[in-house]
Write a structure and sequence with these properties.
The chain has one domain. It is built from four helices and no strands. The protein has helices spanning 7-27, 32-42, 53-64, 79-121. α1 packs antiparallel against α2, α2 (32-42) crosses α3 (53-64) and α3 (53-64) runs antiparallel to α4 (79-121). The chain starts with 6 loop residues before the first helix and ends with a helix. By secondary structure, the chain is an all-alpha fold.
């Protein structure tokens, strides 16, 4: 038995990760800026059109906040620098959240049914 995923299985797995990340953002379990970084990194793995509006949104947000200490990189920053940048992070979060929520809802709507039906078939 092969332990390698088919391309279709890989794409479905990436879509499942995208749905999971979007659901976590929508539920407040994942920071929106960190989630957009993750979703932007999944852009090509989920096999969407290069002009996909939802993944354009995630990528734009990720690029806009790339210089800010988001997620795990925060542990490598000096506390004083984090304190100084906190207003920028809060401002970026307030700016990004409304856009990300719309895109996340769309991704969940588009991919959730496909992912779930393929899980039942054993493909994801």
């Amino acid at each position: 038995m092969s332990e390698h995923m088919s391309h279709e299985e890989y794409v479905l797995s990436a879509r499942a990760r995208a749905v999971e990340a979007c659901a976590a953002i929508l539920a407040g379990r994942l920071d929106v800026l960190e989630g957009c970084h993750l979703l932007a990194s999944l852009r090509w793995e989920v096999k969407v059109d290069e002009r996909d509006a939802d993944f354009d949104t995630f990528t734009a947000i990720s690029c806009e906040v790339d210089a800010l200490p988001i997620g795990e990189v925060r542990q490598h920053w000096a506390p004083e620098a984090l304190t100084k940048l906190e207003p920028d992070i809060q401002s970026a979060t307030a700016w990004a959240l409304p856009q990300a929520v719309v895109a996340c809802r769309s991704v969940v709507q588009r991919f959730e049914v496909v992912v779930e039906s393929n899980l039942h078939r054993g493909l994801a």
